[in-house]
Design brief:
heterodimer, A: about 120 residues, mainly alpha, B: about 160 residues, 5 helices
């Protein structure tokens, strides 16, 4: 009887360790995304010119969104006991649409610089 | 099949997205997803002026892996550059292009945007060159060579 009790106890402990491991993994991934978002926002504040600042939000749109969406998908898959992947559609759509805004902003900024006669690369023609 | 599914990759992607968004995968969801996968590409065909030819799935998979690695690495580089707060030597780089397919160029724009530290500034009218802004410009010619070899060549294999 005590053998069975010990086995059950060992199994319960194993499950607990596994669950804690997963929780830790999810927390690390989510935190990595949060840190990337924080650093990206800080860069947006602290970098000096427009052309430097345009790089900072890409930290948020890459590691920031992917990590948090990945943590969501993992956590929800475990809690609901079924595959939960559609959170990953968010960063996928961000990855597709982010270049559009970047290209428009960059084009506008280079155009303004050229018109103002400031230091800007010559048009490619 | 060709007439029913003029854009097979798009149809498969729509079907997959539809199923992942539906709360349960049952016959109704599969049927609706199939309808969406057939009707939506047909309705949006005028939005895609050049037909998309995707070949070489292995090259595409390797390119995806490469981009993920490079994105992670440049996330770290840009983060340290932002946090160190020292003056950065940024500047523009002109990349001569060999790729002409607009779909390949669209994916190249995604790649450049997905790797922090490089931003797409301008494309020549004849698509013969690309202007990039680089946050921390140390080795301009090296960067051009990397982009051409790492991203442009596989994109030409996939799309052209």
């Amino acid at each position: 009887m005590s053998d069975v009790a010990a086995a059950v106890l060992r199994l319960a402990l194993g499950c607990l360790v596994l669950a804690m491991g997963f929780a830790l993994l999810i927390a690390v991934v989510a935190l990595a995304g949060a840190v990337a978002a924080l650093v990206g926002s800080f860069g947006l504040l602290s970098l000096r010119s427009f052309f430097q600042r345009v790089h900072a939000p890409t930290l948020v749109s890459t590691v920031g969104t992917w990590s948090i969406a990945l943590a969501t998908a993992l956590q929800q898959s475990l809690v609901r006991d079924q595959v939960f992947v559609h959170a990953l559609l968010v960063p996928a759509f961000v990855a597709v649409t982010a270049p559009i805004t970047t290209i428009f902003l960059m084009r506008a900024a280079t155009f303004r610089r050229r018109v103002a006669g400031e230091d800007a690369p010559p048009p490619l023609g | 099949v060709r007439r029913l599914l003029p854009a097979p990759v798009l149809s498969v992607a729509l079907f997959a997205v539809w199923l992942s968004l539906s709360p349960t995968v049952d016959a109704a969801a599969v049927l609706l997803g199939a309808v969406v996968a057939v009707v939506a590409p047909a309705l949006t065909a005028p939005l895609r002026p050049t037909p998309v030819h995707v070949r070489r799935p292995l090259v595409a998979a390797r390119l995806l892996g490469r981009v993920i690695l490079d994105s992670l690495r440049s996330n770290v580089t840009v983060s340290t550059a932002v946090l160190s707060r020292r003056a950065l030597r940024s500047g523009f780089v002109r990349v001569p292009l060999d790729v002409r397919d607009p779909n390949a160029l669209a994916v190249l724009a995604m790649i450049v945007t997905a790797t922090p530290g490089t931003a797409w500034a301008e494309l020549a009218h004849d698509r013969s060159a690309l202007l990039l802004h680089v946050l921390s410009l140390e080795d301009g010619p090296g960067l051009v060579a990397t982009i051409k070899q790492r991203y442009e060549r596989p994109l030409m294999e996939i799309f052209e």
